[in-house]
Each structure stands twice: as C-alpha cells, then as structure tokens.
C-alpha cells in the first residue's frame, strides 16, 4: 500500500468515517473477526430470502383462488416452477438497486405462463380439477401481486441492513469517474459499500473542503494485502478490468479472495461489455452498474461441476481400464521402463500440480520444462506419435480430475515457464487461470491444439470462462468425443 492518498469529495456523512475504522474488529485470538464462511453465508442468505418469498406466493395464491380440494402436489410443482423460472430469468442475481416494480413485467409474464401450463395439464390429466380463464387471470394477478410485495419487503430490509452494516469495498479506476463513484458510495450508504481504498496509479487531484483521504493501491500485491486486512467483499471498477494496469494479475488476486466485482460506468460509456436483461435496470446513483459474473463465482454451479467431474472421471477410469492397460503395455514394450510421464503444470489461480500422461518420447529423451514440443518432434517413438495423434496419451489425466487437480472441461494447463512467458506477451493469458484447468476445452474443440496461436487459445479460454455453464461443458465433451480419433498434435 502506498503512502499517497486520494482525496474524495464528500459531505458530513463521509467525513464522519475515520481512518482507524478501516480494519475489521479482531477476536481475542488476534484473527480477523470476519471469516470467509461468513461471507458466503451472507451471500446465500440474500438469495434464500427471495427464494422463500417467491415459493410462498404460489402457495398463498392457491389457498385464496382455488378450492380446498385441489391436489397440493400441483401447488408444490407451481412453487418449484416459479423459483426455477425466476432463476433462469436472472431474477436472483445480485443488484445494487433492486426494484420490485422494475421486475413486475417479468413477474407477471412468468405467472401467466405458469398458470396457463397448469390449466392445460389439469384439463388433460385431471378434468375434475380443471380451471377456466377467469381463475387463470385471478390466480396470475394475485400471485404477481404477492410476489411483488414480498420482494419489495425483502429489498427494503436489505437496504436498512446495508445502512447499518456496510461492507468494505475498493474502487478501481482513476480520474473524475472514480472520485464521483467513491463520493456517491459515501453519500448513499444504502448501497451497502464503504470505500476503504482506491486501486490505480497515484494521482494528486485538488482536494476540496471536507475531503476524505483514501489510500491508493498501486500494485496487485497492495490490493491483496488491503483485501485481507479490511475484509473487502466488493470491488467497483469504473472501467473494464482489461483496461486497468496489471488487470489480469489484479483479477487473479481478487478471484483468489472471492471478491464480488462490479462495473460502474457513466451512461453511454464506450468499450463497456454488453449487459443482460437483469443488468439493464441496475444503477449506482445514476451510473450504469452490472455485476461482472465471469463464471467463476457460482458456488452451486461449480459444486455440481466438481461432482460431475468426479463421477465422469471415476466412470472413465473403470471403462477405459482395458485401453489404459494396452497403452501402458505398448509404451513399455516400445520405449522401455517409465510408462507414465509426470510434469509440473499450472492450475487454477496459479497453483502448481503434477500432470500425468503416457510417455510419448523415447526413453533416452527428456521432455524439457522450457522447450515447446509439437507433434512433429523427432524424438517421438512410433507408439508415442500414435498416442498423441489419437489423444490417448491424455487418459491418465482422468486421475488428475478425480484428485481435483483438473476438471473435465477447462483451459489446458501449461508449464510454469511458458505461463510466465505467455502472460507477458499475450494480454488475457493470465486471466484464463480463473477456472480449473481441464483435459479438453473450448479452444481444443475449435482446432487450437499443438503448435497453434497462443493468443487465439487465450481468447477462446476466456470466452469459455465468461460464458460458462454446465450445458456448455456437455457440448464441449460431446464435440471432444466426436473428434478424439481425428489426427492432430497436442
């Protein structure tokens, strides 16, 4: 953390915040009072409140609109469908300025859809409980009103809690935009953020009366220390992270600490990534605001991904056991002892691990950690070349997946020497380590294997991360299965 400070215009509310309040309270054992688990629990608690309200609204609606003899299984399905539809519509995403009224068109449309489907299903499978169009209109209207009222109550309670207990935040950017956003956060505590530092080059703007000095964090290392010391939960960017100095390294540090990232820009600002429907209604005191969800902050989805990886890896090892045995025997007979090849690779957040492959070079050749090998390497044996061209040399990596070093789908891991080299020469390469590395990936199924463009690989890897979903993983695995026996180097 540098000794410079950036004055931020503020009011009496801002000047009341003193420098000594930056550090979180500590417990008697000297450790910070806020633990990572508490941070995750608070995030899940916000979503749980909305889920309870949304699930309860159909139950109350059915109790008011339909006869008591109705099957309650239909009510349970309706409540579950409402939660699933809202999740698919993005109505559970974190927003700085949530509004039940802005969500009203989506709530009404989804309620009409649910009741129409229910009416058609009952008409076919349970005619004795069939409903008409009048009940449909009343039911959808009542369900929408109850859902809207419940969500408004939750949002109001959140704003009050945010004023009482704001969380520490950093503002990343420079110039007037960063100062204006910081001032807005101090003046309007209902957003739940209390700035404790500015991320960016040192500046010396003119300080007005009542200005509040904040420390300027010039390097990712300074940011990492500030995040730990102040229990920072949110980082507000006033420009796309890619345009911030050391943006890739900064994103890696913030991802490692589980910070929530926001992009707050003036309306109409150029070079801003496209926003989804759930983002368009969000703002921070007139600034456009969106949550930078790059696929890496979805604990439930990643838990499912990890469980799926473990099941697929264990199943793959069992089913491929005869193939593994044949490959191992072929390598042993052709190239001598040492069937498996072990090499250090870089995984998620830059953590090293030992990758396993079948050996493809002759016994008298050693694969260097600093030499770029391609499929035409003359040191390959005939068996080794066949294994590489068919990708069978990658099968032992199923054990890496089972151990948790890798995933089935993700950016391909590389050696530390080349990670450092490519990170310096190719923008965005370091950012590809935000997700677990994989046996196959979006770049590989698009033909970027072996001696191909590193810049294009990084582009596809970051595209995969920013649009990640379980369905995309399934598509990549299906495309990999269809091309596994095509010729090509790795």
General description of the model:
The chain has 490 residues and is of the alpha/beta class. The chain folds into 3 domains: 5-23 and 166-291, Rossmann fold, CATH 3.40.50; 37-162, no CATH class; 299-483, no CATH class. It is 48% helix and 12% strand. The chain has helices spanning 12-15, 36-65, 72-89, 104-125, 133-164, 176-187, 220-230, 247-256, 277-280, 299-319, 321-335, 382-390, 397-403, 416-425, 442-445, 454-466, 470-483; strands at 5-8, 167-172, 193-199, 212-217, 234-237, 260-265, 283-284, 287-291, 340-346, 352-358, 407-409, 438-440. It has an 8-stranded mixed β-sheet. The longest helix has 32 residues, at 133-164. It is flat and about 80 Å long. The model is unreliable at 8-41, 205-211 and 270-278 (pLDDT under 50).
Give the biggest sheet: 8 strands, mixed
- C-alpha end-to-end distance: 43 Å
Global shape: flat
Radius of gyration: 27 Å
Lateral arrangement of strands in the main beta sheet: 1-4-3-2-5-6-8-7
Helical content (DSSP H or I, runs of 4+): 40-55%
Number of helices: 17
The average pLDDT value, as a whole number, equals 80
| Structure classification | alpha/beta
Beta-strand percentage range: 5-15%
Provide the domain count.
3
- Parts with pLDDT < 50 across at least 5 consecutive residues: 8-41, 205-211, 270-278
Number of strands: 12
């Amino acid at each position: 953390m540098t000794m410079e400070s950036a004055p931020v215009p503020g009011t009496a509310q801002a000047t009341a915040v003193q420098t000594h309040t930056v550090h979180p309270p500590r417990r008697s054992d000297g450790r910070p009072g806020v633990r990572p688990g508490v941070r995750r629990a608070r995030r899940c608690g916000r979503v749980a409140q909305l889920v309870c309200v949304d699930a309860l609204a159909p139950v109350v609606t059915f109790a008011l609109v339909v006869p008591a003899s109705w099957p309650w299984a239909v009510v349970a399905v309706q409540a579950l469908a409402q939660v699933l539809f809202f999740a698919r519509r993005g109505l559970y995403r974190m927003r700085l300025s949530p509004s039940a009224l802005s969500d009203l068109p989506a709530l009404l449309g989804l309620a009409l859809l649910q009741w129409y489907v229910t009416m058609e299903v009952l008409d076919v499978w349970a005619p004795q409980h069939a409903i008409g169009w009048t009940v449909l209109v009343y039911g959808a209207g009542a369900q929408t009103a109850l859902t809207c009222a419940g969500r408004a109550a939750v949002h109001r309670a959140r704003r009050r809690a945010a004023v009482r207990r704001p969380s520490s935040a950093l503002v990343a950017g420079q110039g007037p935009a960063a100062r204006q956003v910081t001032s807005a956060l101090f003046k309007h505590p209902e957003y739940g953020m209390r700035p404790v530092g500015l991320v960016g080059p040192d500046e010396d703007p003119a300080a007005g009366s009542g200005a509040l000095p904040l420390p300027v964090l010039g390097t990712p290392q300074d940011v990492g220390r500030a995040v730990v010391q102040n229990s920072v939960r949110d980082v507000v960017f006033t420009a796309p992270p890619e345009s911030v100095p050391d943006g890739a390294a900064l994103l890696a540090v913030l991802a490692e600490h589980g910070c929530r990232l926001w992009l707050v820009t003036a309306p109409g600002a150029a070079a801003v990534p496209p926003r989804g429907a759930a983002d368009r209604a969000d703002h921070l005191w007139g600034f456009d605001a969106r949550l930078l969800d790059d696929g890496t902050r979805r604990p439930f989805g990643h838990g499912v991904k990890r469980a799926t990886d473990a099941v697929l890896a264990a199943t793959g090892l069992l089913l491929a056991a005869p193939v593994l045995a044949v490959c191992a025997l072929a390598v042993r007979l052709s190239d001598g002892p040492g069937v498996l090849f072990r090499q250090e690779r870089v995984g998620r957040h830059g953590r090293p691990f030992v990758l396993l492959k079948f050996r493809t070079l002759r016994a008298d050749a050693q694969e260097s950690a600093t030499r770029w090998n391609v499929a035409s390497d003359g040191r390959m044996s005939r068996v080794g070349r066949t294994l590489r061209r068919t990708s069978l040399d990658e099968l032992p990596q199923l054990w890496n997946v089972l151990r948790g070093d890798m995933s089935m789908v993700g950016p391909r891991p590389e050696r530390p020497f080349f990670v450092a080299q490519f990170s310096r020469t190719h923008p965005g390469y370091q950012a590809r380590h935000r997700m677990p590395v994989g046996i196959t990936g979006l770049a590989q199924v698009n033909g970027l294997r072996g001696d191909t463009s590193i810049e294009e690989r990084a582009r596809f890897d970051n595209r995969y991360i920013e649009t990640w979903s379980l369905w995309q993983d399934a598509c990549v695995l299906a495309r990999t299965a269809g091309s596994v026996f095509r010729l090509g180097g790795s």
